Amino acid sequence: MIDNKENDKRILLHCCCAPCSTTCVERLIEEGYQVILWFSNDNIYPQDENNKRFGELIKLAQFHNLEVLRNNYNHEAWLDRVKGYEDEKEGGERCSVCFDYNLSMTQEKAKELSIKYFTTTLTVSRYKNSLKIFEIGNKYTGFVEKNFKKKDGYAKSIQLSKELGLYRQKYCGCEFSLRDALKYEKEKAEKLKNNNL
Q: What is the Cα–Cα distance from 111 to 77, expressed in whole angstroms?
């Protein structure tokens, strides 16, 4: 449980996208936190997609009357960090490096704002390993373990996204996850076509 001191109620929430943030925001508010949204996703490609996802997060922030902050988009810095992992499958080592990148940026912002706690929406996705995210996050002072998948978090995020009319993307964010998503869709379409022959 958190302290009753006003400063100790604040938590910086790294938001990968608005749909994933829905459940996380609700739960943190229920737990008594004063949530500040942090959109820091240099991994998201292209920049138009990054802008679109930020716009959707603004909608969620307005719905809950929350403050939302954004970093200066620097995809080149992220590419430099994941160099050598481009051919990794989605969910592999590249993703771990990406988690570390985003969580380190979140800790830096929390320190800058003198916010004691931070966490991430990444654990709500059924496609991401919460234990791996905790392992990485716990390297950083102030990280709070929150497994937002629990209590049907992922299913609830889909429901809330529909209710709020939020855009739900079809790939995690980077050009490599987009590549894998397009490949999967192509294989699925070909399989369906072959089954109908």
A: 21
Residues 6 or more apart whose Cβ sits within 8 Å of residue 39 = 15, 53, 54, 57, 68, 69, 70, 71
Cβ atoms 12, 118 nearer than 8 A: yes
Residue 3: what pLDDT?
47
Residue 75's pLDDT is 98
Could you count the other beta carbons within 10 Å of the beta carbon of residue 91? Answer: 15
Topology at the third CATH level for domain 7-195: Rossmann fold (3.40.50)
Predicted confidence (pLDDT) at residue 167 exceeds the cutoff of 70? yes
* 165-192: average pLDDT: 90
Sheet strands (E) in the chain: 10-14, 34-39, 67-70, 117-120
7 against 57, higher pLDDT? 57
Q: Residue 167 region, left (φ>0) first, then alpha (ψ -120 to 50), else beta?
A: beta
Cβ–Cβ < 8 Å for 99, 121 = no
pLDDT, tens digit (0-9, with 9 covering 90-100), for 134-154: 999 999 999 999 999 999 999
44: CB partners within 8 A, 6+ apart: 50, 53, 75, 173, 174
Which pLDDT does position 7 carry in this prediction? Answer: 52
- The answer to whether 37 and 141 have CB atoms below 8 angstroms apart is no
